[in-house]
Structure to design on (568 residues):
């Protein structure tokens, strides 16, 4: 009898060990891959930082070369998030709290489908449909709001501008933010929703009192994931934007993003140019890392009130 | 400040399923009325129709009328939001808003519908409500801490403070002590006794001793079997229900022979 006790105990423990081993391995693997990427980028980019500034594209050093496209990348991502975030949260709320159940299921499915469309398709659509369609509005903007630097004219006659790229990107990040937000909204404890309703809250007040505070951290994570895609998106931007130097106007040709810059120049690059582009990749890597850390910090700031305790 | 409730011929449905059938009941103002009965007999469902919380669930609906001092809650043009602000509710599990401080929890209902309140009025109201819920002395030094940091019994009293802060006509309680320890339960029961002087209190409970201790009148609900609608079997003064009920099933239930 004492044998069965020890045997079954040890067998259970073996399974436990295997599982914790696998979990540990998976965790370490991610760190290892991240480490390798960082080492690769640093190693390959090194020539850029040691080279004579005059030899770098533009002729006056790496930072002069990189900062316009860093700004371009951030502008594109900012436009995308500014457009996509309110729409996504609205759609997610509609699906989770307003729509009849049948409609919400169908709608959720369609949104998920939107995420499955390859970015090259978005690029083609942006280039052939959206850009020409936006020429008219851009001309109008240049005429009527031209005194605002970002709408300074003359407007692009092809519509292949930063604003167009930002709009295409916003459509691409929309499904990410929407489906994550929807999942989180649906997890709001019924207990709290009913507490709000029972003291005479309207549906919107109930959402403000219970759903948003509960989902706050989740919404920020969703936006950051969207931002990740917007920052790193290559193909669509490369196809939609006719790039150039940094300019304030969003409706003229010009500006460039890091990802598109790398994609467009990589095939013909060698030697120092290659190192430059990899250094640009390193900068993008650092930006994404920084963005994620800021997001973590925002999420953790209100831990005491998060509802997790 | 408290009103009476008269229910006429109320049927409650979840979709096509009739959960509660033909309830007629008159609940006096400034009294404590207890609903007792076995699980699934529809007493909680019925309680939720008294402040129109039942219809929050998809497909749920009600036939019949509920009169609050003669005014039908289900009449045309009646906004459920207004109904709920006049008839407060305390739930089975304590549910203070976790993202709000203790103070904000108490003020949550008052601040609804964009009503403004000055800081001194708010302070006075917070103290009055928390005192009314016998919680003031325990939390007065940490009003800015989250409500979720309190013990279960304290959280439930915070929920009661939140409910009475809006000066409702009626307070509904859905098994308010079932998740609490005996000492917290006693604190809530004492509180119910005090609330009676100002409010109409309706309480659902599984605990018959509790019904006997706190209520003036008791309603016994029962179902004939699974899938059948729940019915109000007997409604009378609490001592009568417990000592001399007129229905056989009531007697069986209160004497512990079933349920």
């Amino acid at each position: 009898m004492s044998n069965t006790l020890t045997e079954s105990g040890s067998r259970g423990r073996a399974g436990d060990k295997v599982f914790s081993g696998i979990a540990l391995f998976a965790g370490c693997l991610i760190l290892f891959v991240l480490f390798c990427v960082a080492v690769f980028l640093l190693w390959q980019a090194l020539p850029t930082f040691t080279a004579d500034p005059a030899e770098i594209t533009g002729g006056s050093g790496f930072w002069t070369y990189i900062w316009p496209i860093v700004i371009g990348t951030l502008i594109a991502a900012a436009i995308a998030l500014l457009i996509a975030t309110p729409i996504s949260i609205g759609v997610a709320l509609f699906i989770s709290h307003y729509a009849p159940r049948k409609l919400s299921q169908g709608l959720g499915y369609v949104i998920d489908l939107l995420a499955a469309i390859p970015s090259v398709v978005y690029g083609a659509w942006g280039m052939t449909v959206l850009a020409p369609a936006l020429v008219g509005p851009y001309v109008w903007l240049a005429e009527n709001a031209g005194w605002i630097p970002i709408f300074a004219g003359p407007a692009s006659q092809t519509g292949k501008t930063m604003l167009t790229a930002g709009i295409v990107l916003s459509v691409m990040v929309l499904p990410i933010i929407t489906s994550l937000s929807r999942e989180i909204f649906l997890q709001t404890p019924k207990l709290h929703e009913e507490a709000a309703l029972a003291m005479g809250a309207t549906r919107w007040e109930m959402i403000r009192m219970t759903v948003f505070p509960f989902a706050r951290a989740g919404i920020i994570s969703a936006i950051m994931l969207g931002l990740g895609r917007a920052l790193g998106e290559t193909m669509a931007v490369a196809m939609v934007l006719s790039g150039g130097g940094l300019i304030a106007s969003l409706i003229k040709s010009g500006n460039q993003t890091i990802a598109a810059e790398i994609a467009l120049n990589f095939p013909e690059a060698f030697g120092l140019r290659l190192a430059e582009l990899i250094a640009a990749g390193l900068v993008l890597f650092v930006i994404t890392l920084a963005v994620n850390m800021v997001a973590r910090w925002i999420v953790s700031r209100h831990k005491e009130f998060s509802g997790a305790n | 400040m408290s009103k009476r409730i008269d229910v006429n011929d109320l049927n409650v449905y979840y979709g096509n399923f009739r959960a509660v059938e033909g309830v007629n009941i008159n609940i006096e103002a400034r009294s404590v009325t207890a609903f007792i009965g076995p699980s699934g007999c529809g007493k909680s469902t019925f309680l939720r129709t008294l402040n129109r919380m039942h219809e929050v669930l998809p497909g749920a609906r009600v036939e019949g009328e509920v009169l609050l001092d003669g005014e039908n809650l289900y009449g045309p043009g009646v906004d459920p939001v207004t109904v709920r602000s006049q008839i407060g509710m305390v739930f089975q599990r304590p549910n203070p808003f976790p993202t709000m401080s203790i103070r904000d929890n108490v003020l949550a209902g008052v601040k609804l519908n964009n009503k403004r309140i000055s800081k001194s009025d708010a302070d006075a109201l917070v103290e009055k409500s928390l005192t009314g819920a016998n919680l003031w002395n325990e939390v007065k030094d940490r009003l800015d801490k989250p409500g979720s940091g309190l013990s279960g019994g304290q959280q439930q009293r915070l929920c009661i403070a939140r409910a009475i802060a809006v000066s409702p006509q009626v307070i509904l309680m859905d098994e308010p002590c079932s998740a609490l320890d005996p000492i917290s339960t006693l604190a809530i029961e004492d509180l119910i006794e005090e609330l009676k002087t100002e409010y109409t209190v309706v309480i659902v409970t599984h605990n018959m001793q509790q019904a006997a201790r706190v209520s003036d009148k008791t309603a016994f609900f029962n179902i004939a079997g699974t899938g059948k609608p729940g019915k109000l079997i007997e409604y009378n003064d609490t001592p009568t229900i417990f000592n001399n009920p007129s229905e056989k099933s009531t007697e069986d239930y209160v004497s512990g022979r079933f349920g």
Summary: Strands of chain B lie at 5-14, 17-27, 32-36, 60-68, 71-72, 87-90, 170-174, 200-204, 217-223, 230-237.
